[in-house]
Amino acid sequence: MDSNNVSPITDVEFCCPSTSETDSYSWKEPKNHLTELSESEDREFPEGGFAGWVTVLGAFLIQFCSYGYTVSFGVYQEYYARVYLTNESASAISWIGSVNSFLFEVTGLLAGRLYDCGYHLMVGGSLLQSLSVFMLSLTKPGQYYQIFLSQGVLSGCASGLLFIPSVAVVSHYFEKRRALAMTLVSSGVCFGSVIHPIMLNNTLNNSSLGFANSVRVSAGFTSSLLTIGCLLMRTKNPQSKPTANYALVAKRCYKDQAYVIGVAGFTVFLVAYYYPLFYLQLEAETYGLDKRFSFYSLVIMNAASFVGELITGLLSDRFGAANMVVASTFGVSVLMFVMVTTRTVASVVVFGILYGFIAGIFLALWGPVFTALTPDLSELGSAQTCLGLNGSPGCLGTPISGAILTDRYIWWRAAVFNGVVAFAGCALFFGMRLALARQSALRLQLQAASSGLVSSESQDSESKNQERNTSSTSKLKASTIFDVLGNAAR
Q1: How large is the average pLDDT for residues 195-199?
Q2: Residues 284/297, Cβ–Cβ less than 8 Å
Q3: Dihedral sign for Cα atoms in the order 355, 358, 360, 366
Q4: How far apart are CA 55 and CA 49, in angstroms?
Q5: Burial per residue of 24-57, b for 16 or more beta-carbon CB atoms within 10 angstroms, e otherwise
Q6: Which DSSP category does 32 fall into?
Q7: What is the distance between the alpha carbons of residues 382 and 105, in angstroms, rounded to a whole number?
């Protein structure tokens, strides 16, 4: 086709208005079709392929060594309270893990922004994570500040730099199967929280190794897997321009009612979520259960969580990710109250399996849910860091629980506190689900209105054409009659 004969064509697209402006229509800026075509070609999703699934494997390993290491802090919590930091309270020790989780969330603000600008953070974050664990091996008994800086601050920043980019990059390769792919990636957290406690419990309690050598073994193991993960991962879609305004991205997200309610639910629910992960092993120890069994109580729970994440990937498309998030948070809320009854081996096993399985569903689905709420996937990193920044206050839950427990370990107080908070988070997630339903219904109405508008314009155009044709025919007939009369007069 001759390019000179191609005229610029623009259109106006109809889009769903914000929930605060449901009584009016919102219109996008005109967009050139040729530009739109090139963008759509760049945004094609291969739904896997060799590069896609290899990237999933690499992201799995990154999750295994970053957040999977963070949620294994329950092993350190018990060991510090019993052996290494005996002069500190349970609440003070839990601040190490809580600051780690807090910085994990907050550092995501920087990581998501840099990811959207096209920077690659995997190598730097992996080096920082390896350094933090090796530095932990150099700390001395009773030196709280040394452990706090290496494990709380340095490791938390490293995990934050790794987590969001490793989740966001998977969305480059999947659309229809995105929930499954992200579930497989996030299952690396649960798998890591199974393997790390087994390794740490067997090395830390081995008198021939000691704390320093045990942590060095763990550091070497995680460093190797991080290296493999960095080599496997590849980006596909171009990131958004570095000039993109983070404030505008946040403003667009916070105009969405479902997004705002979901972020609030995420923040509140996280206050309770970490409690069993940090304290189940210590609780089993204080109730006088077999010492070797208490080591594996956390492993049982995390193994069940791993199974829950894998099954979630198969069920989310059928039941809906938002519906399953609501159901899982409700189940977790109930089990928080039940945790106070775990005083026997059998009760700890049952609780660990149930809580781990249900919590694994939540862990697998929060990523896909908030990805679906993101207005523009090219800004996914920034949108998810909005979530991470607002979810960071939830990391205060375990120090609060430690203070409620006191040095006498009054477990029912912490169970009631976390159960109530978890129910509040569940209620907010239910509100998010209702907001999503309203938005979906409104979108269908607007699409129908848009179709009707186009149809009426088409009908008007057809009627005008018919009138024009009728007028032309009448003029032709009149001209013919006048010609006949003129010929007759001559």
Answers
A1: 89
A2: yes
A3: negative
A4: 10
A5: eeeeeeeeeeeeeeeeeeeeebeeeeebbeebbb
A6: E
A7: 13
What single letter denotes the amino acid at residue 343? R
The per-residue pLDDT for range 340-370, each reduced to its tens digit, is: 888 888 899 999 999 999 988 887 787 777 7
Residue keyed to tokens 């339903």: 437
Q: For the chain, first and last CA: distance in Å? A: 54
C-alpha to C-alpha distance for 68 and 306, rounded to whole angstroms: 11
Q: At what angle do helices 397-405 and 257-286 cross, to 10 degrees?
A: 40
Exposure string of 316-326, with b = 16+ CB inside 10 Å and e = fewer, is: beeebbbebbb
How far is Cα 228 from Cα 265, in angstroms, rounded to an integer? Answer: 35
Q: Kind and range of the H or E element at 11?
A: strand 10-11
- Bridge partners of 15? 26
Tell me, rounded to whole angstroms, the distance of Cα 277 from its chain centroid. 19
Angle subtended by helix axes 49-65 and 155-168, to nearest 10: 160
C-alpha pair distances (Å), 329 with each of 217, 288, 334: 36, 30, 9
Encoded tokens for 438: 């309203």
Instruction: Tell me, rounded to whole angstroms, the distance of Cα 78 from its chain centroid.
Output: 29
Query: What number of other Cβ atoms are within 10 A of residue 290's Cβ?
Result: 11
Transcribe 342-364 into DSSP letters: --SHHHHHHHHHHHHHHHHHHHH
Cβ-Cβ contacts under 8 Å for 367 (sequence gap 6 or more): 167, 182, 186, 384
Angle of CA points 194, 415, 363, to nearest 5°: 40
Cα–Cα distance measured from residue 289 to residue 404, given in angstroms and rounded to the nearest whole number: 22
pTM of the model: 0.66
Number of other residues whose CB lies within 10 A of the CB of residue 397: 26
Strands 10-11 and 31-32: antiparallel
Tokens 């601040």 sit on residue: 95
In degrees rounded to 5, what are phi and psi of residue 348? -65, -40
Whole-angstrom distance, CA of residue 361 vs CA of residue 250: 27
Per-residue pLDDT tens over the stretch 143-188 = 999 999 999 999 989 988 888 788 777 777 777 777 678 778 877 8
